[in-house]
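Journal club side-thread
Mid-discussion, someone asked how the predicted structure for our own chain would compare to the paper's figures. Pasting it here so we can look after the session.
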Amino acid sequence: MVSFRIFTILVIIITLTVGCGSGVMQGASAPAAEMARDSSYLQNQPAAMPAKALGEPSGGQAADQAAGAPGAPGSLGDLATTQPDVYLIKNAIVTVECEDAGKASETLRASLQANNAYVSNLNEFLDSLGRRTITLQVRVPADKFDQSMLSLESLGKVLNKQVSTEDVTEEYVDTESRTRNLKKTEERLLDHLNRAAELEDILRVENELTRVREQIERMDGRLRYLTNRVSFSTISITLQEKAKAEPVIPTQSFSTAREFTSAARSMLGFLQGIWSVVIWFLVWSVVLVPLAFIGYVVLKRLRKQ
């Protein structure tokens, strides 16, 4: 009887233990199953799903971004704020043929004053045929460059036009960054100079400070030069007048009086030449006659011998 009770208790304990173990195993396998289902679900999704997971807009958001909504990520407004500045130096060479170079030059300078431009160099030349050529070097604001180039066509016929552009963005940004770093170095050196106690340290810091300031001045000068070249474009303009029509000279006909005059002038020139020889001989006779006499005497003695 006692053995039967012990056997019954053991069966009950084993049954409870098996039931709890299966419950725990089911609870632990549930998350694993869910993760497996999620993994298979992601694998079965189309290729567009990763793009949407990275924040690709859809529907109205895409329309807002296409329209350049300021609040939308990756919009044109954000691109404009993050786009770096571009520094371009524009130069041009233009040759214009006009009727009157003087009037064209006055018209050009009046147009330049209206566009806040100025003439940096001017040269005027007049050739043997009376044609005037005026060369001007003009500095115009960069935003008025295209407008100024178009206004030159109203002065006359454009014979030559050359436009060149130089990108100095890299140099400008690099110089600006180096200047900023040098100024920070200058501040640190000033701080060291204020805290230095030994004379040797003070002199060493002052020498380094002088060197850094020289570099800063050099960089600032380069930045000012680049800023001026970028802000004002250079246009070299040559205004040349058209070739003037020369009068046609008719061929000369035969004239007896003209031929007689030419012959008389020729004979007079011949007589003048002979008379000039006589005058030269008379003047040099003071030297030539004694020399001729001495030569004659020497020659006569040689013959007697």
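Post-session note: The chain is about 65% helix and 15% strand.
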